[in-house]
Amino acid sequence: MENVVPGPRPPSGAQWSISAEGHEAVVVEVGGGLRAYRAGDVDYLDGYAEEELCVGGAGQVLAPWPNRIRDGRYTFDGVERQLSLSEAVRHNAMHGLVNWAPWRLVAQAADHVIVEYVLPAQPGYPWSLLLRTEWRVGADGLRATHEAVNVGRGPAPFGLAVHPYLRIPGVPVDALSLRLPAGKRLLMDNRMLPIGATQVAGGEYDFTEPRRIGSLVLDTAFGDLRRTADGGSAATLTTADGAAAVTVWADRAFGWWQVFTGDTLAGERRRRSVALEPMTCPPDAFRSGRDLLVLEPGEPWRASWGIRPGSR
Fold it and tell me: Which of 45, 99, 165, 291 could crosslink 273 through cysteines, CB 3.0-4.6 Å?
């Protein structure tokens, strides 16, 4: 058992800093997520300070499901399950079970850190998972590699997403252009749950080519991705003159993106940055089964995504 050092601790627990080739990042114990990322002298991640509590899911890992589950209720393998309603105001289970859990440091070097968490079986999700993330920085930016292994005794439903807020300092959201090569978006009800889908071609949600966000309010799931040669996809924010840009990329394991312009966040964080969230499955996948992964006992799963300055 690890010794607990007495005295005040940051709300996000231990802080693990990594750096290489002009790129720096801070990974935290609580949630095993990303608190800060900068390249050169530019803070591209709209994270939070060491003395602050994580706000709006900033930099968190969302597993074993991303986004929301209606009423926290789903049926898997013929058995109905009930999750706690972590978004009580909308009566949903939201963002999984690991974003406030203490992750354990496995390894650390100057340019990378590996953290893990064993999710215990519990009411509503009676399967145990070993989750591990390697955070690494280098000349190409930041890369996160997620691994999951079902260490339980039966097949387990699974999905994963991440929740980084990206920004170009000094440039408001309304002045940024977004490129996200997706062919459709999900239509949502007033509980932010999908009730249908529609093509985006030619409309205000068509970001297949760079398009200014302007006053558009986004808390939107996009699918039908136009893949890159390696099977992945990417979302890019750029300034109007194209002089500055930041890109979030994701490998072929991620078939969906959630884009959130932060309109419901309080104070100065409102519309200060854009959450570009690669997801393996859409909202409410535990109920719909759409792109839901099923991990067999002992079966490993692995996926990567990252952040890089520029639009390439």
Answer: 165
> How many domains are there within the chain?
1
1 assigned to some structural domain: no
Q: Can you read off the two tokens belonging to residue 216?
A: 């558009």
Q: Is residue 7 part of a domain?
A: no
Is 59 domain-assigned?
yes
20-59 residue pLDDT tens? 999 999 999 999 999 999 999 999 999 999 999 999 999 9
Give the pLDDT confidence of 211-266 residue by residue, as tens digits.
Answer: 999 999 999 999 999 999 999 999 999 999 999 999 999 999 999 999 999 999 99
Does the bond joining 64 to the residue before it have cis omega, within 30 degrees of 0? yes
CATH number at residue 42: 2.70.98.10
Q: Is residue 297 in a domain?
A: yes
**Partners of 257 in beta bridges:** 222, 278
Q: Does the model's pTM come out above 0.85? A: yes
